[in-house]
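Complex record, three chains
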Amino acid sequence: MVAVDMPPQTRRRAARSPQTMAWLLSAPALALMLLILLVPMLSALVLSFTDYSLGATELNWVGLDNYEKLFTRSSYEKMLWATLTYVLVVVPMSVGLGLGAALLINSLGRGREIYKTIYFLPVMATLLAMAIVWELMLHPTIGMVNRTLEMGCGTWIESLWPWLADGCANGMPIWLGDKDYALWVVCFIGIWQGFGFNMVLYLAGLTGIPRDLYNAAEMDGARSAWERFRLVTWPALGPTTVFVVTITCIRAFQVFDTVEALFPRGGGPSKSAYMMMFAIYEKGIKQNLIGVGAAITMLFLLFVMIITVIQRRLTERKVHYS
Amino acid sequence: MTRFNELLKHAVLLFGALIVIVPFYQMVSYSLKSPAEIERGIGGFAGSQALMTDEQCVGRNTPDRSDVETARTRFPGQDDSHVLGQLLEEVRAECQVRPAVFNYTSAFSEAPLLCYLLNGVIVTLSIFVIQVVVALPAAYALSKLRFWGREAVFGMVLFCLLIPVHAIALPIYVGLAKLGLINTYAALVVPWTISVFGIFLMRQFFMTVPDDLVDAARMDGMGELAIVWRVMLPTAVPALMAFAIFSVVAHWNDYFWPRMVVTGDRSLFTPPLGLREFKADIDGSLYGPMMATATVIVTPLIAAFLLAQRKFIEGITLSGMK
Amino acid sequence: MAEVKITDLRKSFGDTQILKGIELKVADGEFVSLVGPSGCGKSTLLRIIAGLEQESAGSISIGTEPVSGIRAADRNLSMVFQSYALYPHLTVAENIAVPLRMRQMTRWQRLPLAGGLMPGAKRREQEIAAAVAQAAETLEIGALLDRKPGELSGGQRQRVALGRALVRAPAAFLLDEPLSNLDAKLRVHTRTEIAELHRELGATFIYVTHDQVEAMTMSDRIAVMMGGEILQCAPPQKVYADPDDLRVAEFIGSPKINVLPAEADAMGRLSVLGRDLPIAVRPGRQTLQIGLRPETLHLARGDAKIVGRVVHLEHLGSELFAQVAVEGLQGRLVLRAAPAQAAALQIGSEAGLDFDPASALVFDAAGMRVREILTAPAKSLAQAV
């Protein structure tokens, strides 16, 4: 319209300064970061000192009551215990298996791709669906696991494996219904689902190791595979390991899908698999105890922050070789 | 010796592969079998596919009075109960189906699975598109523009990278509830619209794009916004592809968040929620259809993964690059 | 320290032959360079000597012992890699100590923490520390011992790599293009140092490089490799002045040797660009090539053998190279002149070139050196007939 005839001076004024432009470009992201990440984090902190519940007309300060509950009530003690057990089992196992698989696959002449594909499948699959499949497989009577185990009854395997003999005589375990097994089954599914991811990261790390280093190690007299691993592979995978452990830790703390699907009543037999995320969901949403839920959230955030800070420390200390 | 070693490695890896793949085998197998076969653990992988009676079909078509009246001419001289019996026989004959067909048709008819799938597509795609629309300009500003406060903004990005959205789900839920957004598409999408990781990733990518390209575009008279969409976006396609896979896989498979914000309203269910609901509803005889549902939900991503493995592995392990 | 003897060594990957029957004997304490363009098989040869790759046929002995089938770690050789291949997580001192720790300490003594408690571990550690300190002193990197490779410059890393190689006394040192990642100035400096180090140690050195200047300046003998073969192995001055093969003559020397087509008539008398030369080969008509080093060409005082036009000048201060285009020749001739002659060489001006026929290197059509040269003046030869 008028733009064509606008004098140059007006046009120049119309062009926004680079400063304003830059802020405008980052404004949506900034606003969303603030509203979706920072404000909720702060409100969780605030809410954790209250007895807030949705729909309630008033809100009372309860100080540290919610936190006190976390550390005194037995159900929360079970929650911390279950979560920590889960993390301490799943992280080393899935990192170790991921590394082991990566080393084995990397040393293969042929067939690398097929193993890589298979091991990665669980990472892609909807965890909830797979948890339900596992539940079916662990079904005490019609499940594949117990059926397979029963096939071993009455054979020589029974004499070698007392656990199996016991199962044959007194009935196979009921897995998810048994508090001695439930948590371990959840751990197993976590490992099953996660180690392929770690494997892929380790494989990427392995391809980044210069071949010359292995040659140098050989020239320097490192004769066994273990010596080469200690001298070259393991140190070179250091940064990968720090990252893999961190991300596996954070994911392990967030376990929810499996426990929610396997134990709809909440937490499994005698709350032996009562995980933090599930507790937040149960307290905060199902029971509308937002204050307690917020306190668990804060505890959860604390764990995650500690892990990440440790990771960043380790990463920064690492001097990279260019 | 080396041959033996190689064989040993394959043996170990094959054993691992077996454990990894068994649930997938079981899932597909159950989705093809009849309830009787599942119950008794027979029929190999695909079952015998012998015709079975669809009891629900029978239930729907049970002859009533008027049917008996109209059918009376066909069975002259018989009393009502006989006619009814004959009609029932006919209905049962018509309701014979192959187990595989039965399982998959019930997966879609027992629950609005198609609607769930559609919801899944809508939610994942909207999340990805909004993430890109928000992240790309911010990443451009952070990497190519000099402005006062840039360091602070980037510092905020780095800090927010520490916060897992799952962890602060409860306060976000409270916020959405206050806004009356629970049980809406918005609730499913909004918390994920900001991907701090996406900003970080795109910024790192843009840092590698030469400044000359941006300057050349400015010389050609493009505004900053035009540069973002017409210059930077096309150069970022490979990184965006990887990010797309990362984002889509995460949100298609996500169960936790939909569980939090969608309660009861089936028309909003995402696929994992739908499967969970199915599981809660079943009376024990519908393992086949449930596994068919699981197969339908898991298949799209697995199929895409098998077709473009390299891209997928790249995308999923993207978070390993920071 | 020991001699290294290679007999009829062959290597092929699938159908491609990388090495085609290498014969080489490196004497005890000798510095031999393997030089050649990239892809000539020189690095493969070195890696086979090291034991990092398997030969397809032939044999290698180190000292008196054949080493076929013996793994690299057991051949008692040291190697410096092009990429230096330092362990990034270890300090300089630890890097240099690795070969000693691996060879002189038991697996138990090497264990972190607990290893120190094993019998004899302490004494070993002290011996190793002393050896490392000495190597560091030789290479003047004592101040860097506590740093990690990532904190070092290219030249410093290179020294550490050298230190790791010379901390023990191996049968021979193998060096794979150790200077190629350094900048030009440092390269010149370091090559002197390596040559001096060799003299000091009196050890056997096998040095791979693609840079003929490095090979010329450092070695006792140069083995020029092309296409998987050693074309000539001789002391540097001989390779330069008396090459066996045109390819050797062309590879060694900078600027490159001038090559002119030549004809021999039935009597074997040579002519270049239509001018008769006072030299002859065995009788029989044939096409030949003669090679003239830039320094053998000079400006003609009177009658010029070759006439051309100056097209480009390169002043290097101490000397002057003139590129001369000659009609009937594809490439340009390069002439080395004293700076004082600059006045006579103007771009675009005509230049008459002359050379001493005795300094011409004669090659046959296939590039093999023709050594039977009769230097009788052409005229008298003609008169004699």
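Note: The radius of gyration of chain B is 28 Å.
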